[in-house]
Amino acid sequence: MVKKRGMVMVPFIILSSLLLFLVLYGPIPTVFIRKLSWNIIKRGKHPSGVSLTFDDGPHPLYTEQLLNILKKFQVPATFFVVGELAARNPDLLKRMVNEGHHIGIHHNRHVSSWMLSPWQLKKEIQTCSDTIQALTNHKPLYYRPPWGHFNLFSFLFIRPYKVILWSSISKDWKQLKKERLASRLAGDAGDGTIYLLHDNGDTMGADSAAPGTMIETLMEVIPILKQQGYQFISLDQLLVEKSNKQGLKRLI
């Protein structure tokens, strides 16, 4: 009986140990890094500035439409690109740079850091960085991991970059009504807001047509926020502390 009970316990112990390791490897470091804001940026310092950032692209249809809208309204943005998609759409990356946008790293594939060994994580970051630099002649300065996930070894490989998370996440990867999405975006506006949006809906858990709704919504929201006194500026401008006079002027 004792021997049989021991045989039953062995798989349980192995499974429990594996689950504990997985939690310690991914979710715990993610919570720790996010909560303590260790070496990461969630909000800028500019008193009246906001920044648009886009993940998961480039997409041959939606990213081009988005660039047209940004050009129309003279709004700079930062694109956190997937390396293998960037390699398939080199002209879009070149256009981003030519029109004054920044490009950041989002891994070579859209894969969570929780699912990557240390050397795989290093390769994902480095390959994406190399692709961006080869296509644009610009070395990326910013990094945002897919889903905002970190693992136990992330700190070893993210030191060369400014790690950008967000202060506004509107779940635009789902097919929302424009009114609902517009309300979320307008409601999240504040001094130094970093918006997280998505120009590709072909990732796990996303709706493929969702970027179209996001783009249509931006066409309405950008003019409204500008009328309220907000300035759409690039991340490098947003991260530099400015005088509070502009912010006070907007409030008055």
Describe the protein's topology:
Layout (H helix, E strand, L loop, with lengths): L1 H24 L1 H9 L4 E2 L7 E7 L6 H12 L3 E5 L1 H6 L1 H9 L3 E4 L12 H19 L5 E2 L10 H4 L4 E3 L3 E2 L8 H10 L6 E5 L11 H18 L3 E2 L2 H4 L6 H7 L1
Parallel strand pairs: 1-6, 2-3, 2-8, 2-9, 3-4, 5-6, 7-8
Helix pairs in contact: 3-9, 8-9
Structure keywords:
alpha/beta, 6-stranded parallel β-sheet, 9 strands, 252 residues, TIM Barrel
Description of the structure:
GO terms for molecular function: hydrolase activity, acting on carbon-nitrogen (but not peptide) bonds. This is Polysaccharide deacetylase family protein. This protein is of the alpha/beta class. Helices cover 48% and strands 13% of the residues. Strands 2, 3, 4, 7, 8 and 9 form a six-stranded parallel sheet that branches. It has a three-stranded parallel sheet with strand order 1-6-5, with no helix packed on it. It is globular and about 60 Å long.
Proportion of residues in β-strands = 5-15%
**What is CATH's topology name of the largest domain?**
TIM Barrel
Amino-to-carboxy terminus distance:
79 Å
| Shape call | globular
Q: Which regions contain 5 or more consecutive residues with pLDDT less than 50?
A: 243-252
CATH superfamily assignment of the largest domain? Glycoside hydrolase/deacetylase
> Roughly how much helix do the residues carry, as a percent range?
40-55%
Class from secondary-structure proportions: alpha/beta
What's the multimeric state? single chain
Number of domains: 2
Count of helices?
11
For the report, how would you describe the main beta sheet?
A: 6 strands, parallel
- Overall mean pLDDT stands at 90
Number of strand elements: 9
GO biological process, one term: carbohydrate metabolic process
Protein name: Polysaccharide deacetylase family protein
InterPro entries: Glyco_hydro/deAcase_b/a-brl, NODB_dom, Polysacc_deacetylase_ArnD
Domain NodB homology: 48-233
